[in-house]
Target: Transcriptional regulator
Amino acid sequence: MKDIIKALATFEERFEKTHQISLNEALLLCVLHESEKEMTPTNLAKSTDLSTSHTSKVIRILEEKKLIQRKLGRVDRRLMYFHLTEQGDRVVAHLQIEETMIPELLSPLFK
Model:
């Protein structure tokens, strides 16, 4: 188990160094990209299997990086909806898993 955790940590470190975003940030960006529509924080949390509090943290970070943008609901102004910015779209388009990022223990998962 320790080896798997170390391999995952190594992969995340390499991914973050290459793309300047964490795996959770990439996950949220990909979910927004694939949905092709605006999503509420609750829907993002459900789609990513992250807790609502962690989703809020990731949303805040992505907003600070200007990769996502919030919009108030038209009908219910209490609701917030998030969508990718142009910069966020570019980041998603360039997300790739390089073989050099993958620790040997995890390589069978990517074949």
User: Anything to note?
Assistant: The mean pLDDT is 91. The beta strands are 68-72, 80-84. The first strand starts at residue 68 and ends at 72.
